[in-house]
Amino acid sequence: AATRTFSIIKPDATRRNLTGAVTKMLEDAGLRIVASKRIQMTKEQAEGFYAVHKERPFFGELVEFMISGPVVVQVLEGEDAVARNRKVMGATNPADADEGTIRKAYAESIEANSVHGSDSEENAKIEIDYFFKEDEIVG
Ligand code: CMP
């Protein structure tokens, strides 16, 4: 069935004018952009979004990176949207990412890895609600 996932085009990608290129790869993978907005995250917003990682050694740098420039937050819809998006994103570390994935094509490092995508349907719901009101999502 058609489900939803949440995506972020990260500052390394917006900085290099790759919003369209990344979005095209998502669409070509069978995902529909049903909501999209370009925002500058606040520190509080980034810390809240990545709260599950707050004990990790890279948390501080991750938050600083995510507020270093604009991001594009999106809701994606499609068959098995979470898994479909994870497949087209590729591995977190671009060194491990398969050919044909967004991170293989564009990521600069494990931190500046161009995109975020929800890792489960449960987290997708939480992450979508964190950035969007239901009436901003138009299927
Ligand atoms: P993301 O899917 O946005 O979720 C957490 C992010 O932490 C991850 O992508 C990476 O960009 C970032 N990150 C930075 N350093 C590391 C690391 N050593 N291991 C895992 N993730 C990292």
TrEMBL record:
Its main location: cytoplasm. GO terms for molecular function: ATP binding; metal ion binding; nucleoside diphosphate kinase activity. ATP binds at residues 10, 58, 86, 92, 103, 113. This is Nucleoside diphosphate kinase. The active site is at 116 (pros-phosphohistidine intermediate). It catalyses: a 2'-deoxyribonucleoside 5'-diphosphate + ATP = a 2'-deoxyribonucleoside 5'-triphosphate + ADP; a ribonucleoside 5'-diphosphate + ATP = a ribonucleoside 5'-triphosphate + ADP. Residues 2-139 form the Nucleoside diphosphate kinase-like domain. HAMAP family: NDP_kinase (MF_00451). PROSITE patterns: NDPK, NDPK_LIKE. Homotetramer. SMART domains: NDK. It comes from Aurantiacibacter rhizosphaerae. GO terms for cellular component: cytoplasm. Its EC number is 2.7.4.6. Keywords: ATP-binding, Cytoplasm, Kinase, Magnesium, Metal-binding, Nucleotide metabolism, Nucleotide-binding, Phosphoprotein, Transferase. Its cofactor is Mg(2+). The gene is ndk. Major role in the synthesis of nucleoside triphosphates other than ATP. The ATP gamma phosphate is transferred to the NDP beta phosphate via a ping-pong mechanism, using a phosphorylated active-site intermediate. It is found in: Cytoplasm. One of its GO terms (biological process) is UTP biosynthetic process. It holds the Pfam family NDK. Belongs to the NDK family. It is an enzyme of class 2 (transferase).
